[in-house]
Amino acid sequence: MKRSFPFVFLMVSLLIFVSCSNTTAPEDLVEEDRYITVFTELVVINQLNETQLDSVSRDYLKEQIFEKYNVTPEQFERTHLYYQKQPEQQLQRIDKIEESLTEERDQLQDRLNENRKQLADSLAAASDTLPRPGPAEELIDID
After folding, report:
1. What is the mean pLDDT of each run of 10 residues along the chain (143 residues)?
2. Full 3-state SS string of the chain
3. Domain locations in the chain as residue ranges
């Protein structure tokens, strides 16, 4: 028990130090809406499997996202660390990301269902226009 006290004391001290550390926003802070958008796209990229990546590297895709939103990886990291120091607000940001991803998934599912319905309707219409064979004896030449 005596050996664990220094460890616990060190951990509590470290936690207090980290929680009281400088919470000043970085000069190049990414505004919240852009941060959420970039973070959302990074989450999607991190969920892709190798087949979905189709020989494109994750790092390349991340670079493209940072370029698209005019954010450097270092700037995003500083912003992320700053926002992480605000747990309640960060949870709200994460909720927004989850809502956005859920909405996008639902829209894609709706489009997929509509495409399936159109395909089924097209196949049904095409089968209606095909000539129907007559009785079996008409198909067989008995001479």
Report:
1. 51 52 83 96 91 90 96 96 94 94 93 92 80 62 59
2. CCCHHHHHHHHHHHHHHHHCCCCCCCCCCCCHHHHHHHHHHHHHHHHCCHHHHCCCCHHHHHHHHHHHCCCCHHHHHHHHHHHHCCHHHHHHHHHHHHHHHHHHHHHHHHHHHHHHHHHHHHHHHHHHHCCCCCCHHHHCCCC
3. 27-123
